[in-house]
TrEMBL record:
Highest taxon listed in the record's lineage: Eukaryota
Gene3D superfamilies tied to this protein: C2 domain (2.60.40.150)
Keywords for the protein's UniProt record, in alphabetical order: Repeat
Species whose genome carries this gene: Gadus morhua
UniProt-recorded name of the protein: Copine family member 9
Name of the coding gene: CPNE9
Length: 421
């Protein structure tokens, strides 16, 4: 049978399955534990696992297949023009713009798009625009779409010129006789010049298509974290609980590792003096193997992290650019869609090489790569928000990042950190 579940990439969703042979007697045949992410992240979203739970008996296997429920993910791009619109301005022509409305089940209308205003023109050609098809018709291709034509006024009391109705199905016919609309009882018309639809792919689409996540960790080993042997240090290895770095690593890593098939994670440190010569490094492998920085699963990363704390000297400064560039070089070699790189950087303070870091982020924004920066400890992380392009894209030397690839969050916000891909 099918089970419909809500999938949240940023959460670890634990599942348990008990198998019985008879509903009335509940003859137990075995059980299995997994996460929803394991099923989604398996090749073709198909997972086979062994049942257990009956001592000394082979319980067989259970097989899961996952698929995303279809929804309207199409994106529509269209362009319209008008001819012979009414003159509404006393000292000029008109300043026309269009307002698109989606009809609701109760007969009301909801605005879904406004075009730009074309000043002093009775024959305007508006710029093409893009909006989700679900915003236009909520997936109902025959639902009425109403379009009002207004003459813009500075005081907000825009003059109504006329209106027409159409539907997504009509619009999808493109430039034709079906998409020439009278907007009043006289001669003005609005014409659809072009219309195209593209699909917007989701995270699940890419995973089902075979894309693998490559998870890389970078940990701050600067002296501002405090002496690891002291309980006040953010790196203190208590026998009773994990420190702030280990908790942040495990919170993110436990989720992402479900989508990395080989469970081999490159792990680096930055800002420390390395034995035997005390050379400062901003991208040293935690496992001390320069040729192969991979650690096996999150537990392997934690083990390498604790080992590094015993051998290196915490120093500084806090430079981010070297490790970002290191991962970017790997991502640049894998641009065929088969791999996506996620860099987790855990730090306690202000970035020392902000200019170089911004340049590294701008350069990496065109690559299959995202960066999660987790701040631990009591320091202020406001300066790092400049790297998080939610409001304004990161820029460097006159260039802006192609997309937002950085998410900055305090360790306390890991329960709801957003996905970037």
């Amino acid at each position: 049978r099918k089970f419909v579940l809500d999938f949240f990439f940023e959460e670890k969703q634990n599942l348990r399955f008990d198998v019985s042979s008879n509903l009335s007697k509940h003859d137990f045949l075995g059980q299995m534990f997994c996460t929803l992410g394991e099923i989604i992240g398996s090749t073709g979203s198909r997972l086979e696992k062994t049942l257990s739970g009956i001592p000394g008996k082979k319980c067989g296997c259970i097989v899961f297949s996952a698929e995303e429920l279809s929804n309207c993910r199409d994106i529509a791009t269209m362009q319209l023009c008008a001819n012979k619109l009414d003159k509404k301005d006393f000292f000029g022509k008109s300043d026309p713009f269009l307002v698109f409305y989606r009809s609701n089940e109760d007969g009301t209308f909801t605005i879904c798009h406004k075009t730009e205003v074309i000043k002093n023109n009775l024959n305007p050609v508006w710029q093409s625009f893009t909006l989700p098809v679900r915003a236009l018709c909520n997936g109902d291709y025959d639902r009425t779409v109403k379009v009002d034509v207004f003459d813009w006024d500075r005081d907000g009391s825009h003059d109504f010129i006329g209106e027409f109705t159409t539907s997504y199905r009509e619009l999808s016919r493109g430039q034709s006789q079906f998409n020439v609309y009278e907007v009043t009882s006289i001669s003005p018309i609005v014409t659809l010049l072009s219309f195209k639809v593209e699909s917007e792919y989701t995270f699940v689409d890419f995973i089902r298509g075979g894309t693998q996540l490559n998870f890389t960790v970078a940990i701050d080993f600067t002296a501002s974290n405090g002496n690891p042997s002291q309980p006040t240090s953010l790196h203190y290895m208590s026998p009773y609980q994990m420190n702030a770095y280990a908790m942040a690593l495990k919170a993110v890593g436990d989720i992402i590792q479900d989508y990395d098939s080989d469970k081999l994670f490159p792990a680096y440190g930055f800002g420390a003096k390395l034995p035997p010569d005390g050379k400062i490094s901003h991208a040293f492998p935690l496992n001390s193997n320069m040729d192969d920085p991979n650690c096996v699963a999150i537990e392997g990363v934690l083990e390498a992290y604790f080992q590094s704390l015993r051998s290196v000297q915490l120093y500084g400064p806090t430079n981010f650019a070297p490790v970002i560039n290191q991962v970017a070089r790997c991502a640049a070699d894998m641009t065929d869609g088969s791999q996506y790189f996620v860099l987790l950087m855990i730090t306690d303070g202000v970035i020392s090489d902000m200019d170089q870091t911004k340049e590294a982020v701008v350069n990496a924004a065109g690559l299959p790569m995202s960066i999660i920066i987790v701040g631990v400890g009591p320091a202020e992380f406001d300066a790092m928000e400049e790297l998080d392009g939610d409001e304004v894209r990161v820029s460097s030397r006159g260039r802006s990042a192609e997309r937002d690839i950085v998410q900055v969050t305090p360790s306390s916000g890991l329960v709801q950190w957003p996905s970037l891909w």
